[in-house]
Amino acid sequence: MTKKILFITPALSKAGAETQLVKLALFLNSVGFDILIISLLPQNDYTIDLKSDQIKVIYLESWKSKPFGNLRELNEKVQAFDPDITIAFMFIGIIFARLLKLRFKFKLISSIRAAEIPAKWYIPFKLSLGLDDVVVFNAESSRLRFERLALVRKGGSVINNAIAIPTLKDQPDGGEERSFKWICVAHFRSEKDYPTLFRAISLIKDRDFKLVVIGHLFNQTWPFEMLKELQIEDKVELLGFRADTRSYLAHADAFVVSSFTESMPNAILEAMANRKIVIGSDVGGIQSLVKAAKCGFCFPQGDVDDLAKKMSEVMDMSVEARELLVNNGRRFVEENFAESTVMNQWLAIINHQLSTRTLPEMEIISS
């Protein structure tokens, strides 16, 4: 009999955690599991489209207008699907899944994708502690932090993000005479701390470089106002959201991000896979990743002067020095974040929870 896996997520936005959920759902569907995804929020223009992938998705309606209707539909859909395993992503998804488990008795795998828990979810998350069968983190730093704060039971698993390893075509020539091109891929949310990055750029604006920023602006105007105030409009190009960042990464020389909290950022991993030097703030998964991979540099979070200094140092590096760092980053991603490795780690945990081997060990063959 086909085993059923339910995913519960706050939304299916085009962001790092949701991208990982979709990759996992598609993989599990491809190896024979019956998959249902329930999004706690409505579908919108910023939602990942899964119509062509034959994955069943249910979107709840606005909780402000239909809270009781949503609760009724959620219960009805879970009861009708009758999952063997539920995989919950992010804190509110985990809280809902824990409560549903009390009634439906499925196995629960909770996936924590952030380094810190928002204050509004702290109490319900803490009160429902212990209802998970397995807790999966995407960074060792997050696991250690949550266990130290007694927000999860000890013994959680760490499974890295799955990163598609690109073929290295159309990469810039390291010896080519042209403006240095930086790239940042991050939505304009407060935790990404773009003001620090913009102020650092203003300190070195006389140099020959350009920063391309890809990320949803959410109709905010302050980024444009800040660029004008700092007189760096000619240095920074805000492209807004782009569904596919591959071509932009391919034509960049280095990646920079100034977040004040991160777990294991997809954008940095994708930059490393594309052989880009990384500069990031010394927080959470960024610090541990850059240090382990030896692919770039970290600066004290919020330190505008040090960020500007490190950006200048990277632009002044020799071609040979840059090559050493980008090769380190690429190799580290290939060895630790390749999709085939990560998906088989998820499959092993799922099969263990099912108590019997549903499928033989699968290997994804790279095309």
TrEMBL record:
MF term (GO), any: glycosyltransferase activity
Listed InterPro entries: Glyco_trans_1 (IPR001296)
Keyword annotations: Membrane, Transferase, Transmembrane, Transmembrane helix
Pfam families, sorted: Glycos_transf_1
Limits of the Glycosyl transferase family domain: 177-331
Transmembrane intervals: 21-41, 85-104
Protein's recorded name: Glycosyltransferase involved in cell wall biosynthesis
Organism expressing this protein natively: Arcticibacter pallidicorallinus
